[in-house]
Automatic annotation (TrEMBL):
Activator of Hsp90 ATPase homologue 1/2-like C-terminal domain residues: 22-159
Family stated for the protein in its record: Belongs to the AHA1 family.
Name the record gives this protein: Uncharacterized conserved protein YndB, AHSA1/START domain
Domain of life: Bacteria
Length: 162
């Protein structure tokens, strides 16, 4: 399993997930840079994603929805703040409605995804900093650790396919 560690800290309002992949940094980066590959790993296995917009550049947006087994749509968006290919991706992550408008009643977070070369391939660190402890607690109660772990663990299969 790629996920090696999960940490949450209410004092710093952070959720951090660490994963390791047996592939070079550039290949792992491509999973996020290519919307069709991103669709294959974004969201838990039973909630496939559809990426609608994908502008992976500062000021760009990535919009998507996940479809539940009951055909419910759950929308979200990223607002990109910094991109350092293939090492680092920074964005604001939001829940959205079907028009991809931010849902203010749901917690947002600032995310930093970093990718570093290690002897066996790539170590990815996924850090989310929430706006409040209530926001962090809300996503934890929603099962974000289980959902994110399931999503990230799909990356190995995608990498193995080429």
């Amino acid at each position: 399993m790629p996920v090696t560690d999960t940490m949450q800290n209410e004092e710093t309002l952070t959720l951090t997930i660490v994963a390791e992949f047996a592939a070079p940094v550039e290949r792992v980066w491509e999973v996020y840079a290519d919307p069709r590959q991103l669709e294959q790993i974004w969201g838990p296995p039973t909630y496939p994603a559809t990426v609608v917009d994908h502008a992976l550049e500062p000021g760009g947006r990535v919009t998507y929805f996940m479809t539940s087994p009951e055909w419910e749509k759950f929308c979200g968006l990223w607002e990109l703040t910094s991109v350092d290919r293939p090492k680092r991706l920074e964005f604001r992550d939001y829940f959205a409605d079907e028009d991809f408008t931010v849902v203010d009643s749901m917690p947002g977070s600032s995310c930093i995804y970093s990718f570093e070369a290690i002897e066996t391939g790539t170590r990815a660190t996924y850090e989310s900093v929430f706006d409040s402890v209530e926001g962090l607690r809300t996503v934890l109660e929603m099962g974000v650790i289980e959902g994110s772990t399931g999503a990230i663990n799909q990356i190995d299969d995608l990498l193995a396919r080429g």
